[in-house]
Amino acid sequence: MRIKPKIDRKRIIIMAAADLFREKGYNASSVRDIAAMVGLEPSSIYSHIKSKEELLAEICLETANKFMLGINIISKQDISAKKMLKLLVSLHLDIAFENPSFAIVYIDEWRYLPEPILSEFLNLRKDYDKKFKKILTDGKSDGKFSFLNSDIAFNIIIKTLNWSFTNLKKFRREEVEEELNHLIFNGI
Amino acid sequence: MRIKPKIDRKRIIIMAAADLFREKGYNASSVRDIAAMVGLEPSSIYSHIKSKEELLAEICLETANKFMLGINIISKQDISAKKMLKLLVSLHLDIAFENPSFAIVYIDEWRYLPEPILSEFLNLRKDYDKKFKKILTDGKSDGKFSFLNSDIAFNIIIKTLNWSFTNLKKFRREEVEEELNHLIFNGI
DNA sequence: CCTACCGATCGGTAGG
DNA sequence: CCTACCGATCGGTAGG
Lengths: 188, 188
Prior knowledge:
Two copies of one chain form a homodimer. Helix content of chain A is 69%, strand content 0%. By secondary structure, the first copy, chain A, is mostly helical. Chain A has one domain: Tetracycline Repressor, domain 2, CATH 1.10.357.10. In chain A, helix 3 runs antiparallel to helix 4 (81-98). The N and C termini of chain A lie far apart (59 Å). The mean pLDDT of chain A is 94. Chains A and B meet through helix 7 and helix 8 of A and helix 7 and helix 8 of B. Chain B binds a DNA duplex through residues 30-32, 40-47, 51-52.
């Protein structure tokens, strides 16, 4: 007797959707395409999912929750802001290399989330950003960081960390991490 | 007698399209929406443009050409790599602040360009990237830059420069430029 | 999980 | 620049 086989099928569909959304963008990806990728007729997809939007929601929220989980663990530790930032670099790379398609869709396609999921997603992001910024401002208070405006610096650094996940496969993870740490902490 | 009034109308349509593409993404933006923005019936748009794709092409190629023009001027000067990189920071901010919608569409929506325009666009980008990378490697040869891998460093820095053009309006240009220069040259 | 199908919306054209 | 309209494609449902 198989237990909840639908769970596995659904996961396969979500992963196929992530690959497609990444490649063509959410709006240019059709349910028919996703169905073909997993060997189903278009309408059969709906035995496993409620809607195309649900697929995007699962991808974006799962990834957002990974970031939240990670930053919560990092924030709680009794270490310097500099070490925390180093762990954040590592966290972003963990998530990006673990599942590149999810990471790219999370970065590039979240805006197509329907309400009320969009609000839920944005709240997670706002929470993440706040915790990230606190690490930066703590580091500045301690005299370890010397950026000028914490909002601008935060925006630049978060963008840097989410750098072209697109080209990720071309490089080894350790190389990327070394380079990011070098640039963030010492500059070019 | 009015001379070539269509040029102005077309420009207005392109700018409206850029605003819409930026806000909703290319695929989620309909010709009907663009027409409504400029006060025309949907079909009347086609008296001014050939297709929706043409609008995207104009936005992306015009912006790509601005970048090419800028880097060609910068590369020709007899100055250090560090000064060149500083001018590149300035170039990216010039283009971003001059027309944020064009800049964002250029960054986020270019992949929806149809062939053969996509290839033309990618060739411009490849040329730009090559010139940008040369400045970085020159700076390293001179011992002024200390990054590790020029491909990775280039990707990170270009991403940093194109940082959330999305939030640009929240900050003053000089502040952003100061912060970028600080982070790129000295680190956090 | 499939066959059959639907209403909505899309980019674009014909003809004036 | 408009009215009228078209074929294609979309997300999704009915019913088995």
